[in-house]
Design brief:
Elements lengths: L4 E5 L4 H10 L4 E5 L11 H4 E8 L5 H7 L6 E5 L2 H8 L4 E5 L4 H16 L2
Parallel strand pairs: 1-2, 1-3, 3-4, 4-5
């Protein structure tokens, strides 16, 4: 199976709706509210080009750890600047501050989509 999808983990669906509205015609987004038994960790690296992980609270970190270092580039998105600051120090994780204005968010998401999903 060739990887062609972009994973969005967003348990409140705010940013997943935003991304699919702006970029849905170009990219195949798969949206998850949580990772339950139906989520196949074994094929994660083969199936996905990029993963956006929207963190609303520390509770989401348990699901984050399931996909961290599984071979797919990760972009952590959050309003929590303290949490983002901690993720910025990790070399293989990119971050987006979701408190930015709409056009800045579009530009940020577009940079990561073009960098990782346009190979």
């Amino acid at each position: 199976m060739e990887n062609s999808k972009v994973l969005i983990y967003d348990n409140q669906h705010g940013f997943s709706r935003f991304l699919t509205k702006i970029f849905g015609a170009v990219y195949d987004f798969k949206i998850f509210k949580k990772f339950d038994n139906s989520f196949d960790l074994e094929s994660f690296e083969k199936e996905y080009l990029l993963a956006f992980f929207v963190l609303y609270s520390e509770k989401n970190l348990f699901d984050f750890m399931k996909i961290y270092r599984k071979g797919v580039p990760l972009v952590v998105c959050s309003f929590n600047e303290e949490l983002l600051h901690q993720f910025e120090s990790i070399k293989d994780i990119n971050v987006i501050n979701t408190s930015r204005c709409k056009q800045e968010l579009i530009n940020d998401f577009q940079i990561y989509l073009y960098t990782y999903a346009e190979d």
